[in-house]
Amino acid sequence: MGKSDKYNYGVVLDAGSSGTRVYIYRWLRNALARAQESTIHKLPELETKDKWTKKVHPGVSTFGETPELVGTDHLKALVGHAVEYIPKDAIPNTPIFLLATAGMRLLPDQQRRNVLDSICSYLKTETDFFLPDCDLHIQVIPGETEGLYGWVAANYLLGGFDNAEEHDHGKGHHTYGFLDMGGASAQIAFAPNSTEAEKHANDLTLMRLRTVDGVSQEYRVFVTTWLGFGVNEARRRYVKQLLDTYAVEALDEIPDPCLPHGVILTIDGELLAEKDVGQQHLIGIGAFDECLRRTLPLLEREKECLDEPCLFNGQHVPAIDFDVNHFVGISEYWHTTHEIFEMAHKDKSYDFNTYQNRVAEFCSQDWKSIETAIGDKLYGKKVDEQTAYQVCFKASWLINILHDGIGVPRVGLEHNPTTANGTKEIIEAGKEKGYLEPFQAVNKIKSTEISWTMGKMVLYASADVPALEEQAAPVGFGSNDGSIVPADFQLPGGGRLQPGSLSVPDQSITSKITDTLLSSDSPHRIPGFLFFLLIVFIAFFYLRKRNANKAGTLPRRTSSQTLFSKFNRLLGRRNASKDYDRELEDGSTRLYDPNDFELGAMDSSDDDEVASKPASGYASPTTKRNVKSGGVAGRLTPDIMDRRGLLVRTESRERFDGLGGRKSGQGSRSPTRRDR
C-alpha cells in the first residue's frame, strides 16, 4: 500500500500581514487508524515536517491594488512547494485552504474581495487541489476563529485532549491557555475555571472534536482578539505618538527610547546611514525603562468596560485563574523572547525579571557594537539588522501586554504560589510537570511547530471520523447557547450546519465492511481472502451483464444473478430494477436509478474506504463530475458517486460544510497543469 493509499492530506495557506506560509499535513485514513490500538481512543494523529512548510513575503494584503498579480507573484511558489511533497494521485483529493488574518481584515472591502477572487481563480485554474467552494476554502477568518484554531493546536500537541490525567492542573482542569501575536492583531483563548465558566457561559464558544473511535469531546472556550494590537500596528501607533509629542518643537531628529543607542531610522522604519540623514528621522537613545513607560498607554486600559471584567482596550475577558490557566504563547511571543536573548542564555523558561534585564542590557548598547555582533553571528544566523533594532520595542510591548494587559504574574519578582518561587524552581518544575508556568513562550512541541493552521486540520480530520451513533452531534464550533447545534455552528470545512438537523449519513457499506475487517476486536471479522473473492464475483457479474447489454442481448437469469439479488436483499437494497432513495442532510430523499451508474475498472484498493474517499469529506471523485444542472442544492446526484466501486459512497454530514454536493463549475481541475 503506497503513501497515497494510507494517508489523507490537507494544505493550509496562512495568509498573515507580513507574509504567507504553506503548511502540509497528513493523517492515516480512518480504517487504518482504527486498526491501531494505540491511537483508537485519541484524535486523528496529524503529521507534518519542517521541510513541508515555506513562507514568502510580503502578505497578500499588499496586492490590494494589483490583485491580478497575487497568483503568479505570490502563490505560485507556495503551491509548487506543496506539490513537491504530496503524492500526485492524492492531490485531487487533497483540500486546500487559504485563510487570511489581520492584514486582510484591514483592507477596504472591495480590495479584499478582489484579492480573494483572484486567489480563487488562480488556484482553480493552475492547480488540481480539491477546491469545491472558494467562499469556504478561501476567506478572511475572524481573529476569534484564529484563536480557537490555535487553542486546539496547542492542546493537541501538549496532550491536553488525549491524556487528560497526565495534565491535571487542579480543579478538574486539563487544558492550556493560548496566546498569539502577529503583526496586526493579538489573540487569547482559554477554558475558564468552573466558576467563571458558569458565570460567563454566554461568552464561551462550544468546541466539539471526535476521537478515532467515534466518541465526541466537548469544551467551552473563551476567545477574543485585539485588532490593531499586534507588534507592527502597535509600533505604528507608538511612532505617531512620538511625532505628536515633539510636533511643537518641529524637530528633525526625534529621540526614540525604544531603539538601541545610535540607530537611525526613517519615520517609516527604514534603516538610515549617517551620511543619508537629511529628513525627519528617529534616533535611538536606548532607554528601555522609558520605552516601557511610553508603550504602556498604547494598551488603552482607560477605555470604559461595558461588560465586567475587562483586560485592556475595554474588552471583556472572564477572570483568569492562574492556578489552573497556564498559557503558551507563540509567534511574536516566541520570536521576541528567543531570537536574540536565548543565544547566550540556555534556560528557556520565561521570567519577568531575567527577561527585562536582558532586554535592557541589549538595548543600551551602541548600535555599532550590535552591528558587529550581528556580523559575527553572535545572536545566531537568522538575526539581521532589522530584527535587532526592532526587538527593543517588541520586547517592551510584549512585557506590557503580558503583565499589565493580561495580568500574568511577574515571575522572578512576584511570589507565585501556583508553581514555585523564583526562576530556578520554575525551570525545574517545568521539566518535571510540563508547561505549568503561568506563561511559557513556545515554538515547537515534540518537534512540531505550533501553528493555528494545525488546529484547523485537527478539526477537519476529526470531522472525517464516522460517529459512534447515527444521531451524534457534528464536529465544529459555535455559540455556547445550550443547543447541540447552535445557529452559528461552524463546520471544519468552513460552512454551517442547519440547526435542528443532526442525522449523519451512514458510512458506505464497503466502508463498514472494511472497518469490520480491520477492527481487531470485531466479533464479525471474516477472512480478507473470502471478501476479496466476493468482490471479484460481483465484479464479474456486472461486467458480464454490461457486455451483454452492449451486444444487444440480455442473458437469461442465472444462478449467479439470483445469488446477487439475494446479496442485495441481505444488504437491505431494493430490487436492482427499481429506484431507491437515501435520506439526505436536510431530511429529504433523493431517488436513484441504478441505470444511471456505470461500473468502472475494479481495483483491489477499492475494498478499503480509505482508497476512494476524498480527504475533504465532500462526496467527490478525483475527476470533474459536477452536480447536474437543475439539481437541488444540498442533494447528491449520480455524478457524485465513486465510479471506481460498486456502492454509493457517503460522508459524515459535517464534512459537507452545510452545502451538500458540489456546485457546478466549482471543481479545481485543470486539463493542463502549469508551473509544477
UniProtKB/TrEMBL annotation:
Key words of the record: ATP-binding, Hydrolase, Membrane, Nucleotide-binding, Transmembrane, Transmembrane helix
Active site (UniProt): 146 (proton acceptor)
Segments traversing the membrane: 526-543
InterPro entries for the chain: GDA1_CD39_NTPase
Positions of the UniProt region annotated as Disordered: 578-676
GO molecular function, one term: ribonucleoside triphosphate phosphatase activity
Residues where ATP binds: 183-187
A biological process term (GO) from this entry: UDP catabolic process
Entry keyword annotation includes Transmembrane helix: yes
Bias-annotated ranges (Basic and acidic residues): 578-588, 640-657
GO cellular component, one term: membrane
Taxonomic superkingdom: Eukaryota
Assigned EC number: 3.6.1.5
Family note: Belongs to the GDA1/CD39 NTPase family.
The protein's name in its UniProt record: Golgi apyrase
Lineage: Eukaryota, Fungi, Dikarya, Ascomycota, Pezizomycotina
Gene: YND1
